[in-house]
Amino acid sequence: MFSFLVKKCISNAEQYEKSEVRTAYGNLASLVGIFLNIVLCALKFLAGTIANSVSITADAINNLSDAGSSLIALVSFKLSSKPADEDHPFGHARYECIASMIVATLILFLGIELISSSVDKILHPEIVVFSWLSFAILTLSIAVKLYMFLYNRKYGRLIHSSVMQATATDSISDAIATAAVLISMVISPLIHFNLDGYVGVVVACFILLAGYGIIKEALNEILGQAPSKELVHEIAKRIEGTSGVLGMHDLIVHDYGANRLFASVHVEVDYREDVFKSHDMIDNLEREFKQDMNIEMVIHMDPVVANDPKLNELKEYMNLGVKEIDKECSLHDFRMVPGETHTNLIFDVVVPFHVKMSNVEIQKRLEEHIKKKDHMYFLVITYDRLYV
């Protein structure tokens, strides 16, 4: 059904990177979600009343909240599609993260309420009545929620929507929860023991877990997280495959929401190369990133000495010392400034976050390392963190 609606309602549906196409997907998914959840809510209230089941009724309320969540998602797609302005030069795409937080908060609230009502049901059990109509409604609900999970996950990944992926997570949790309610309704009359309240607690735990997962993901996006390995690999492949580039370092990627990527990187070029030629190459690279990957890339050009045997020997020696600290540590921008009494070795050391040594401790280790070679060398080190 959703694929059919996509073909009928969305022009250029496969151009996922376009803002208007992305917004159209979000609006369509939200409207379909509102409709399906309201229908499921009405049917489950009927089933819960017939079966005298608090867990089915709670599941109905959960669907009503899902309809509200879809409404919030609809508003967030409208807000996040607004173009950048003077006050928000990086755009408004993070409205989706805020919407995900609101959805998750509603989910957590419902989970807590369901635990309360389920515990009350355990303490004051009532007879659960099996009904074929209720059975059919719950089975239909599971099928619908699985379908909602599939299309929200598929298109949420294609358009990079945190709200749609949050909805997918919520949908699969709902399907599992409803399956548990269905099993309770079937088994309770057979064993002459009311499982309704206990299953309600289990359902609530699934709901709380789903809410926690959505909040965690949304917080990661708001706080900023490392880019995917695939994105880093693609950026490195493009840069290092360019004629005239000797290497790259200090890559930083800022993600301001779907299709709003800003990045900076240092690119090493031969110091003997004509500066205008190198600068033109850098300009072309920045333009290609914008055109091909929709990344606003800023590239800093680092001229390096690549043909000095003495410099290369010292660089390799210091690189061994850096790797002794941690194999993921690295150095760059290595240069040498000779003097009458001593020689300064100036370079940057990249330290991953999992390395717990302080900069002072690392400095001491590296100074001990270079003194083994010659006491005339002094180290001037800038410490960087690994942002990818």
Describe this structure in words.
- InterPro entries: Cation_efflux, Cation_efflux_CTD, Cation_efflux_CTD_sf, Cation_efflux_TM, Cation_efflux_TMD_sf, CDF_Transporter.
- It is found in: Membrane.
- Pfam families: Cation_efflux, ZT_dimer.
- With 388 residues, the protein is of the alpha/beta class.
- Helices cover 63% and strands 14% of the residues.
- The protein contains 11 helices and 6 strands.
- The strands form 2 sheets. Strands 1-2-3 form a 3-stranded mixed sheet, covered by helices on one side. It has a 3-stranded mixed sheet with strand order 4-5-6, with helices on one face.
- Strand 5, helix 11 (359-371) and strand 6 (377-385) form a beta-alpha-beta unit.
- Helix 4 runs parallel beside helix 6.
- The two termini are 40 Å apart.
Précis, in short:
The protein has three domains: 2-223, Cation efflux protein transmembrane domain (Alpha-lytic protease prodomain-like, Up-down Bundle), CATH 1.20.1510.10; 226-303, Cation efflux protein, cytoplasmic domain (Alpha-Beta Plaits, 2-Layer Sandwich), CATH 3.30.70; 308-388, Cation efflux protein, cytoplasmic domain (Alpha-Beta Plaits, 2-Layer Sandwich). It contains eleven helices and six strands.
